[in-house]
Amino acid sequence: MIPAASFIAAAGQAGIGFFTGVPCSFLTPLINRTLSDRSLNYVGAASEGEAVAIAAGAWLAGRGTAMMCQNSGLGNAVNPLTSLNYPFRIPTLLIVTWRGQPGLKDEPQHVLMGQITQRLLDVIEVPNAPFPTTADALAPALEQARASMNATGLPYALVMEKDSLAEESLDQAVRPPPAPGQRTDVQSHGDRPTRLAILERVLANVPGDAPIIVTTGKAGRELFTLADREQHLYQVGSMGCASPMGLGVALTTGRRTIVLDGDGAALMKLGSLATIGAYQPAGLLHVILDNGVHDSTGGQATVSPVVDFAGVALACGYAHAFVCDSVEGFAAAFSHALSTTGPCLVHVRIRPGSLEKLGRPTIAPHEVAQRFRSFLRQAAERAGS
Ligand SMILES: Cc1ncc(C[n+]2csc(CCOP(=O)(O)OP(=O)(O)O)c2C)c(N)n1
Questions:
Q1: Rounded distance from Cα 183 to ligand 1 centre (Å)
Q2: What is the pLDDT of residues 356-382, one digit of tens each?
């Protein structure tokens, strides 16, 4: 059994200082410590997949990260681990508990995952080792994790048994409710614009030093076809992870960060809006390109026509939410949003369909990640932060 503070200090030595995740009772001391230590800014996520994406954003912005979760939550994390961290070569230290460890009396819902935790990590090519439980084992375990992540660019997992950590009290900051946000509706109810026309507006108006994270599917392909720039991060997989990645970037840099989401993707991880509203990243501008369908997979309807995304965002604590349905309305909303502080949503209703000759990013995901990371580093240097 080790004190959580010793683990955090050793992680710091290995360059890891950004913590996110979803609790598990085995993790309580570590999460309590990261919450009680105000210098650590633990980000509590709504789901483990979202936490993986938040950590990925923080890593792209220059932080060494750890994502803590119960092994049952590994299931929620598999999609971004395989389709974001793996192709983009984004490392994070996973601290995964071992509920249902064979021989340990545990609840029925943990039995199967307890039997397969390490095998599941092996299958998704996440090297893993037991979480250290003695003071002597700490530094070598973290050095091993650091060396592995540096060598492969991939996540590394420490699997934590019950009672690995000494008890820790909880002194968490009370998060004040955000001030009520503002809603601006500039809908004209005429013909809806194409996604391409809106992306052209984004490119025309976006500040040159603002990163853009774009959701999976045709939105990223269209943006790439219009312009391929170092500040673009095309999320070729990890559906729903654009906004939590944007949260990780915006919280880490404190700067303007643009997320271009789809309605299907936003619905897939709607909990991320709540995390964004709670953590109030000052520069996050979240655009939902809502064509009412899963356009990229053949146009199957989403439930977005019955969803008031602006209302959801405001209920979650966004500072401002715009609704628009024309190029002019979007241009007005987007430039207004760029001048506001606090998380901001622009919900633009568009028509389905895309460019006939649609390209695909020809640059490999891991190159996109490296390019985006150095763009953020240079932007921070230029800003003197
Ligand atoms: C986890 C996951 N589920 C399903 C898919 C398949 N898929 C790729 S794009 C897409 C549709 C995305 O819809 P939306 O966000 O509305 O964007 P649009 O295609 O309309 O631009 C789907 C279902 C996927 N890539 N990942």
A1: 28
A2: 889 888 999 999 999 999 999 999 999
